[in-house]
User: Fold this.
Amino acid sequence: MDEAQLVRFVAGPEGAVTPDIARKLPGRGLWVAARREAVETAARKGLFARAAKAPLKAPADLADQVERLLRARLLAALGLARKAGDLTFGYERVLAAIAAGRAAWLIEAADGSLEGRRKLLAAGRRSTTPPRLLAEFNSSELGLALGAPNVIHTAFLAGRGAERWTTDVGRLAGFRPLFPQE
Assistant:
């Protein structure tokens, strides 16, 4: 399985299984498919201890921990992308990025207007390179990550930053639905 579809864990202090979302913690990595059921099964059946050949204990909420860490990583990456100039937000600027074919992701606040989202998605369908949709975060989470109030419509512009971000979005998709139920 491709590493982009896996979550790395390491043996933490006192034999605890620790998620290594950034893949930088020291120690031998224990890799599990980036899906809630795979992490829950590995924790329940003691597969981490078997793979490490050492007594390891996985917390009961390990899959929830991974989900929280992935969400936090995605939000932090949005803040960094804004500073790097890889993001634009505001309805008109996002619409212009979509129309120009520069938007890799349309990031909509989950509590935002459905009408605005529909208009942007319609523009995306007319674009030569339609953006993907993510509506995982609410407007206050997006505003906090981007340092601006009332962020509803955001576009992650195509490039290397968007490609790295896409990997983490794919991993989070294994733990929760990322699209709004309309």
